[in-house]
Design brief:
Elements lengths: L10 E5 L4 H13 L3 E6 L8 H9 L7 E5 L5 H11 L3 E4 L6 H6 L1 H24 L3 H6 L1 E7 L23 H20 L3 E6 L2 E2 L8 H10 L4 E4 L5 E3 L1 E2 H14 L5 E4 L4 E3 H15 L10 E4 L14 H7 L7 H14 L1 H8 L4
Parallel strand pairs: 1-2, 1-4, 2-3, 4-5, 5-6, 6-11, 7-10, 8-13
Antiparallel strand pairs: 9-12
The structure holds nicotinamide-adenine-dinucleotide (NAD).
């Protein structure tokens, strides 16, 4: 990342910067650029402000480069004002409701936040961009961060790529697909400089403990039953969050406007395999409670549960030179040990509800 040219970017706006991926991105940008970083987040149940605040407390000299707007993208007038204040050269749009199970229980919340919220952000950003001079306009980028779930579910073979047709199957993926279409439409209709990324399941430290890897780790650490949906053979392509952040920064610096980049970890694992791996590490951490795999309990499958996701990342690898830094094994071990050392943080987060 250090050799990338972000000199043109004085002001970078991140939405959803108090979430898992956004928080990682903000810290990376504060560490590796001289840009001013603006963060719009509504502070929902999955948000965490401690992480960025702790980082700034230890790096006092970076404080003046960071500004937080506690705003909801559904409030369009306030979003207009924030964009005018931030004067961004680059926007990373990550804010979204992100948990499939919640979308099954309360789809309307996903429609409002992920579709209307994205529309408001694009509308405000486009108006701002349209007011810039031609050199500022050509430097500007709007990165829309999406998911591989918009492409639906795969069988045993094949992988998604940039040309895969849309086939969302949950209210979450349908809301993300809609927001992708909005971003795409503003590029084609108005020339707004959008780039879309579709990534696979992220994992790493600081993820809200409702998602598979932190949830299983925590339950194992607490000797609670570990739920596994259906037959446990649903496959996900696991991407370490730091590799994802490096990919996003690369796309922002060198990606082609109007284009799309698929980002996957090339780590296809069934949910059962992931749980088995976590339990093996937990046996090392806490041998008295081994074997942790005995905590595994099969539960009724999630409705419409996509069977397999897999991403072909050839384009971003070949065109932009992206690659993962470390192996899945090394990254998952680091992640599990992080959760084992941060149980208090997890317990605090779990007191919140959607
Ligand atoms: N985590 C993954 O595995 C994954 C995979 C593919 C794509 N994505 C996408 O990446 C993005 C970030 O995911 P994450 O895992 O960090 O999610 P997260 O749930 O951890 O964080 C999302 C953040 O967005 C904020 N937010 C939601 N709606 C908002 C609104 N209306 N206004 C302002 N802020 C709002 C929340 O408060 C939260 O802090 C999402 O767009 C998600 O769809 C995530």
């Amino acid at each position: 990342m250090n050799n990338l040219n972000f000199d043109y970017c004085k002001n970078i706006l991140i939405t959803g910067g108090c979430g898992f991926i956004g928080g990682n991105l903000i810290i990376n940008l504060l560490q590796n650029t001289n840009s001013r970083i603006f963060n719009i987040d509504k502070l929902g149940y999955a948000s965490d402000t401690n992480r960025i605040n702790n980082f700034l407390a230890k790096n006092n000299e970076k404080k003046s480069r960071y500004q937080f707007f506690n705003l909801d993208l559904r409030e369009n007038e306030k979003i207009d004002q924030a964009i005018q204040l931030a004067k961004p050269d680059l926007i990373f749009h990550l804010a979204a409701e992100s948990h499939v199970d919640n979308s099954i229980k309360s789809p309307g919340i996903f429609i409002e936040n992920n579709i209307i919220g994205t529309y408001n952000l694009i509308d405000s950003s486009f108006k701002y961009w349209d007011s810039l001079n031609s050199s500022e306009k050509s430097n500007f980028r709007f990165l829309h961060i999406s998911t591989d779930e918009v492409f639906g579910s795969l069988g045993e073979l094949g992988s998604f790529n940039e040309n895969s047709p849309y086939d969302p199957r949950s209210p979450y993926s349908a809301s993300k697909a809609s927001s992708d279409h909005l971003a795409n439409a503003w590029f084609h209709t108005y020339g707004f400089p959008v780039i879309i990324t579709n990534c696979s399941n992220n994992f790493g430290p600081w993820q809200f403990p409702e998602k598979l890897i932190p949830l299983v780790t925590l339950r194992g650490l607490k000797k609670e039953f570990i739920p596994l949906y259906g037959d446990g053979k649903n496959v996900r392509d696991w991407l370490f969050v730091e590799d994802h952040i490096n990919a996003l920064i690369l796309v922002a610096s060198k990606g082609e406007i109007g284009s799309r980049y698929c980002i996957g970890g090339s780590n296809e694992k069934s949910n059962y395999e992931v749980i088995k791996n976590i339990c093996k590490h937990l046996d090392d951490i806490n041998p008295n409670h081994s074997p942790h795999i005995d905590l595994l309990t099969y539960v009724e499958d999630r409705p419409g549960h996509d069977r397999r996701y897999s991403i072909n990342s050839k384009k971003i690898r070949e065109e932009l030179g992206w690659e993962e830094k470390n192996s899945f094994e090394k990254n998952i071990k680091k992640t599990i040990f992080w959760y084992a050392q941060n149980i208090e943080w997890c317990n605090e987060m779990l007191k919140r509800s959607f």
